[in-house]
From TrEMBL:
Coiled coil: 179-213
Residue ranges occupied by any Transposase IS110-like N-terminal domain in the UniProt entry: 6-145
Protein name from the UniProt record: IS110 family transposase
Alphabetized GO MF terms: DNA binding; transposase activity
UniProt keyword Coiled coil, yes or no: yes
Keywords assigned by UniProt, alphabetized: Coiled coil
Organism annotation: Noviherbaspirillum sedimenti
Gene Ontology biological process terms from the UniProt entry: DNA transposition
Pfam families xrefs: DEDD_Tnp_IS110, Transposase_20
Domain Transposase IS116/IS110/IS902 C-terminal: 211-287
Length: 337
């Protein structure tokens, strides 16, 4: 009997395959090397292939799609309940095979190569920014050992380093040389990060979807291109709330006996996208008090009833729903009067 569903547990070099027929009977339990994987699937008739969404999953989903298979990605937390016993490759592949056949399973959109290339630039910029912050903290700590206190902010650090380089502040020669070398490295990282930002801004101008998203208050090129590249086809989400839940911006539930208990946000999904949305709404909240539109007044009233953090997260969730509507329906942003 033909194989209709396969669970594929991927790794760097070793891959586990578990296939079943239309009655759910196991037909394949096999370990493959990286070089043999595509050759193996090329010999199979088209079938449903489940893969956990992890490193390399989007690449393999695209390759299997080119061979005619229906490759679908799932979050690992949705696969775990179907694993019957201890964790190993064979049990993981069987659990994936079982999970992908569930009618109500939620799947992760498969990213295109172009989308992954954009996100690669985003991650490279994030790495440079984090290294720059680490270096600035290190420089500030070293200067503190010589009685030079650097308050928060890059502008203050630059002024202090300018004084050290011009001799207005004195340091031992060896310490001065070392700290100046670290500062030079920090400047190089900052320049490279700014170069990536210019490229991202140029890409945003070429993307119709990103340009429409940038009409939303607080959404710039970095946030817009990250959302567009990560989401892909927004129509895969049934509504805006499901999209907000995918971003981890909806409350956790612990309800029972007809009583609804809501906690903090679930924090599921992409941490970076959620962080971008929340940080951008913090800047919007600062100027919301001087505006008269309904959304700004709603955010101000919510801030008065709760606190700034709750209001910022709620506004980020509202923006996420607006973004879904704009991407799924191809509409422009309309400000509520």
């Amino acid at each position: 009997m033909a194989i209709v569903r396969i669970g594929l547990d991927i790794a760097k070099l070793v891959f586990q395959v578990h296939g079943v027929d239309e009655h759910g009977k196991t037909k394949i339990r096999k370990t493959l090397s990286r070089g043999d994987l595509l050759e193996f699937f090329a010999k199979l008739p088209p079938c449903l292939v489940g893969i956990e969404a992890c490193g390399g999953a989007h690449y393999w989903a695209r390759e299997l799609g080119r061979l005619g298979h229906d490759a679908r990605l799932m979050a690992s937390q949705f696969v775990i309940p179907y694993r019957k016993s201890g964790k190993n490759d064979a049990n993981d592949a069987e659990a994936i095979c079982e999970a992908v056949g569930r009618p109500n399973m939620r799947f992760v959109p498969v990213k295109s190569e172009e989308a992954q290339a954009i996100l690669t630039m985003h991650r490279a910029r994030d790495l440079l920014v984090s290294e720059r912050i680490a270096l600035s903290n290190q420089i500030g700590g070293l200067l503190g050992e010589f009685g030079i206190a650097v308050t928060r902010g890059m502008a203050r650090l630059r002024r202090v380093m300018m004084e050290i380089q011009t001799g207005a502040r004195t340091l031992p020669l060896l310490a001065k040389e070392t700290i100046c070398e670290l500062y030079e490295r920090m400047q190089q990282l900052e320049a490279k990060a700014q170069e990536y930002e210019r490229k991202i801004s140029a890409m945003a101008k070429q993307s119709e979807a990103a340009k429409r998203l940038m009409a939303i208050e607080g959404v710039g090129p970095i946030t817009a291109t990250a959302i567009v590249a990560s989401v892909g086809d927004a129509r895969l989400f049934r509504n805006g709330r499901e999209f907000a839940a995918w971003l981890g911006l909806t409350p956790r539930q612990h309800s029972s006996g007809g009583k609804s208990r809501l906690g903090g946000i679930s924090k599921r999904g992409d941490v970076r996208l959620r962080t971008l949305l929340i940080h951008r709404t913090r800047s919007v909240m600062r100027s919301a008090g001087g505006k008269s539109d309904r959304k700004s007044q709603w955010a101000v009233e919510l801030q008065k009833r709760s606190c700034s953090n709750v209001a910022a997260v709620a506004l980020a969730a509202k923006h996420a729903r607006i973004m879904w509507a704009m991407l799924a329906k191809g509409t422009a942003y309309r400000t509520a009067a």
